Every structure is written in structure tokens, then in C-alpha cells.
Amino acid sequence: MKNPSQPASTSTIGRWLHGAAFAPLAIVFCVVLSLIAGRVADENWIEQFTSQGGQDVQVSPDLIATADDLREKIQEEKTSSDSLLVTSPDDSTPAVRVTVGRHFGIWSILPAVITLAFCVTFREPLPALLLGILSGALVLQQYDLTDAVLLPGLASTRAAGITLLYLWLLGALLGVWSRTGAALAFAEWVCGKFVRGPRSAKLVAWVLGVLFFQGGTVSTVLVGTTVKPITDRNRISPEELSYVVDSTASPIASLIAFNAWPGYVQSLIAVPGVAYLATEADRIGFFFQCAPLSFYSIFAITGTFLLSIDKAPFLGKRFRAAIARARRQGNPVTTGGVHVSADTIEPMGFEGDPDNKIDPDYRANPWEFALPLLTLIGIAVGTGLYDSPKVRWAFAAALGVAIAAALVRGMKLPSLVEGVGDGLKSVTVVSVILVLAVVLGGITTELGGGLYLSTAIGENAPRILFPAILFVLTAVIAFATGTSFGTYAIAYPLTMPMAIAMSSGLPAESGQWFVMICFAAVLNGSVFGDQCSPISDTTILSSLVSDCDLMEHVRTQIVPACLAGVLAMIAWTIMTAITVG
User: Fold this and answer.
1) What are the Cα distances from residue 289, in Å, to 87, 272, 285?
2) Which InterPro entries does the protein's record reference (predicted)?
């Protein structure tokens, strides 16, 4: 039940009624602006011809024909850029990489801007994402929103993967744990063994965030759902937990990279004529060599550790007020999926009190949570050592172990099936938000939003400031699109040749160090922007599993995140100054 003492204007319905005169006007304005953009926006094509070692390229008819073919491929496949390595049959001329991309000028980022503005203003990610998708469709003059826009996006491999992983596998696993009470039993065991107060409770959350180094949404959900009962009992604010969960997920994945990241990124950084990037093994090794230069990730993880031991130097007034409120009053009451506090009432994605879903005739053992979790981590790490981590395999195996353990220990099949159903229902809203974020990301890519932002800076930046500029640029792209992996696909094929060209006048060792610094800046800028974006899947999930209002999480996290970003830019600038002399 909702606390009757709370003013109606703080509820979700109250906020919509409070903005009833403004919201329709804002929607109409966005739609009209998008229609106009679709009429006036022109395609801007970019062509790059890069040879081995950065030599000048004599553009031949063959290269022009290749560029034309890539242009047609981009239009057919609805993407923003593509590239192809062109070699001569007899090796008489250096290999040339032809890169072609398109964007629609400033209109390319209109859907992302509308989504962010609507989300910040009305604090509702679901309608914000839908409005952003509609805006992008209108800019592209695709007026059949269902069959031409939503259906292809929802039918994409990535959207299907999200549905399989987060709705079916993760939802079912959470449902089994909720029905058996295994997660609560594990939390009680950890609490009894290690937790002695708010500081040790946060430290447990931090350690788990570091241990679950698969990164992204997987780590976010696992850490959040595991430690939430512990932090609730020890007066840890939702803002603190969501910050620790979010700021250890992707940052740790870029440092302890036994996950899918190196295998994906290496495919984007191949530059002809560069020996240390020649083969896939070379590029994966290059990724690991750059890990110590991931200064933002290092500072972000350090910042969450300092918060865990109550030594954080700079959190901002809003964050400290949330901490003081939680220590004084305890965590807000959660009833029926509504987050009730003195400040806000927000709908949460994981509904209901987990205590009420436990089978009353079943007594769980902490190992019923630990064993599936160890299975999940073991398969993910084990497969990652030989190839890319098989995350869906890991979750499927963990679900199988959890179900088998419950049945062997005496849980009735109908009760277990009911738990699985509750788990699926609990993550439905989250899955819808994540899938819509994928659709919006695809539209932004098709519009060339990231490519537009990349070219807006140009190639005339001073070398000493170039890594810091790359960090800011990729952070803006990731913030606007809500995806770090999508930003890598946009930024690396453009920035790596630029970095190598800028290093051409340096000694070989110094030149490689400069490229490594630039690589780390792009890697970390994407993590920073994705982490702070209210339309990012990890940001949304961090707030949901922590029972924190989405925009409160964004507003409180952005202060320490920006501090880590500034310190990282200073560190990269100093390293660059030392490297280039």
C-alpha cells in the first residue's frame, strides 16, 4: 500500500498529472521537429583511404568503385559505416583500407537528444525510448513504425539475445532463487559471517562487483540481487548500492578482461601495416597491454572502494544527503513494487517483497545460491579462456543446477513452476526497456549519430590533448546512444588510424605508447558515457536491482563519475606529455 501521508504529486501518476499541460505539447513539438528534420536533412558521406604506414594514397578507379560498393551496402544494410581492405594481386602497391560512412548532420543525434530530454524531464524511460524511436523513424522517413521499424529491431539477433538471456534465463533463475529463498539464505549467511555494519555491507557489495568481472548487465543484476537484502538491513541507501553496482560492472570488465570484450574490440582495431596489430592474437594482446592505462576504470573502482569504507572524498550534496537519510531513517519501505520514501515514490522493475514469494514448506541452504553462481562464473571464465565467454550457456547451466537442487531437496514441481513464472513476470518491464534501447541504438547507428560527433571534432586536435578529446568524444557518443559496445563500433575504426597517423613522427616505442593511450581513452570514454546515460541498459538495471529511482541514480552517480573522468584525463595528458616529449 502507498503511504497516505505522501503528497500525490510525488507519485508516478501525480507527476504525469502535474505535467499534463506540458507533456502533450512536448510530444507534439518533438514529432513536428522530427518530421521537419526528415524533410530537410541531407545525407553526408565520408570517404577515407588509408594506406600501410599512413602514406599518401593515390585514389584509383578501383578504390572509387570499392567506395561506391560500400555506399550501396550501407544503404541496404541500414548502417552508418563500413570498411574494406583492398590489396593488389602482386603486392606492388600498399594495401589500402577504404572506409565509407554517412550521417545526417546535426539531425543524426535528434532521437538521442529527445530521448534524453524526455527521460530527464519526466523521469520515465519507457515512453522516452518510444518517443526517441518514433523521432528516428520520422527523420529516416520510415512512417510504418510497426512493420518497418519496430519489427526489424525486435527481430534482430541482439534483441533476441536480450530476450533469451534477461527474460527467460535470468528471470527464471531469479524466480527459482526467490521461490526457494536461496538468495535470502545466502545473504543471511554472508551477513552473519562478514557484515558488521554499513561499511562491511558495502565492502561485500564492492568485492562481489570485482569478482563478477564479466561486465555489463550480467554483473549488474547478479551483484545487485545478491547484496540488496544485506544493504537493506544495514541502512545502505539505494543510491550507494546502485553506484557501487554500476561503477564496478563495466570498469572492472575493462581491467580483468576475461570476457567478451577483447574478442569484440580486436575486430575493430585492425590497421594495415602496424605490426603490433597484425593478427587477432596481437590485437587481443594489445588490449591486455593497455589495461593499466584504463585510468577511468581504475579511478571509478577506487572511488567505489573509498565509498565502501566511508572515505569517499567528493560525492556531492545530493549523494551525501541520501546517505545521511538512510543512516538516520533506514531504507524506504518497498510495497508492491512501489518505492516509498520521504522524497519519492517510484515504480520498480522487480516487483513485490521477496520474503512473500518463498515457499513456506521449504527451507533453503546457502549452497543453493552459491553452487549455481559458481557454475555460472566457472563456465563464463572457462569458455572465455578458449574463445569468447558463453554467457547464455553459463546462465542456462546455472538455471539447471538451481532447479535440480530445489527438486532434489524436496520442492514440489508446481511450486517451482510458480516461482519461475513469478521470476519471468518480475523482469518483463526491464526486458522491454532493454529491447527498446537496442531498437533506439540501431536507429541512431543508421542515422550516423556517432559518426557525426566523431567528424565534428576533426583531425586537427593537438597531440598532447588528443587522448582527453577522444575520451570526451566517446563519452558523449555513449551517453547519447546508451551503449559502450555500439560506441566502440563507431569510434575505433575512425580513431585508431588517426592515432597511428599522429604517432608517425615519433620513435617506434613512443608512437606505440601514444596509440595505447588513445586506445585506452576510447575504451574508457565509452564506459564512462554508458555508465552515466539514463538510457543505458546497465544504468537502468543498476537502479532497478538497487530499488533506486533511475534519475536519482543518474544524478548522484554522475558527480563521483565525473571526478574519476577528470582525473583520468589529467593522467592521460601527463602520460602523453611524457611520451611525446
Assistant:
1) 29, 20, 6
2) Na/H_Antiport_NhaC-like_C
Shortest CA distance to 179 belongs to which of 378, 410, 474? 410
Give the angle 423-226-362 at the CA atoms, nearest 5°: 60
Q: For the segment 468-517, what is each residue's pLDDT rounded down to a tens digit? A: 999 998 898 788 777 777 677 667 766 777 787 778 777 878 888 999 99
pLDDT of the residue at 79? 75
Annotated domain spans of the chain: 158-580
**Is pLDDT at 575 greater than 90 in this prediction?**
yes
d(CA 488, CA 450): 10
Rounded to the nearest 10 degrees, what angle do helices 198-211 and 295-308 cross at? 150
Separation between Cα atoms, residue 298 and residue 547, nearest integer Å: 26
Q: Which of 520, 448, 460, 457 is nearest to 489 (CA)?
A: 448
Q: Which of 470, 418, 477 is nearest to 451 (CA)?
A: 477
Return all residues near 87 (Cβ < 8 A) that are at least 6 apart: 95
The contacts of residue 145 (CB under 8 Å, 6+ apart) are 133, 134, 137
Residue 569's pLDDT is 96
Query: For residue 64, what are the contacts with CB-CB under 8 A and spacing of at least 6?
Result: none
Residue 247 has pLDDT above 70, yes or no: yes
Please report the pLDDT score of residue 544 as a whole number. Answer: 82
Could you give phi then psi for residue 483, rounded to 5 degrees?
-145, 135
| More confidently predicted of 233 and 293 | 293
Tell me: pLDDT of 528 over 90: yes
The pTM of the full predicted model, rounded to 2 decimals, is 0.66
N-to-C CA span, the chain:
65
Torsion angles phi and psi, residue 91, rounded to 5: 60, 25
**Rounded Cα–Cα distance for residues 244 and 239 (Å):** 9
Angle at 516 between CA 579 and CA 91, to 5 degrees: 110
Burial of 6 (0-12, 13-18, 19+ CB in 10 A): middle
Contacts of 506 (CB under 8 A, 6+ apart): 514, 579, 580
Q: Which SS3 state, helix, strand or coil, does residue 226 take?
A: helix
pLDDT for 430 equals 67
Greater model confidence, 391 or 67: 67
Distance of CA 375 to the CA centre of its chain: 24
Residue found by looking up cell 544524478 in the block? 555
Closest CA to 543 of 344, 358, 355: 344
Which residues, 6 or more positions from 265, have their beta carbon under 8 angstroms from its beta carbon?
Answer: 283, 287, 488, 492, 523
Whether 237 shows a pLDDT value over 50: the answer reads yes
CB 333 within 8 A of CB 287: no
Which three-class secondary structure state does DSSP give residue 101? strand
Q: Are 473 and 547 in contact (CB under 8 A)?
A: no
Mean pLDDT of 231-253: 85
Q: What is the pLDDT of residues 4-31, one digit of tens each?
A: 333 333 445 445 444 556 778 888 999 9
Buried residues in 70-107 as b, exposed as e (16+ CB within 10 A): bbeebeeeebbbbbeebeeeeeeebebbbbbbbbbbeb
In single-letter form, the type of residue at position 315 comes to L
Residue 505's SS3 state is coil
pLDDT digits (tens, 9 = 90+) for 81-96: 777 878 777 666 777 8
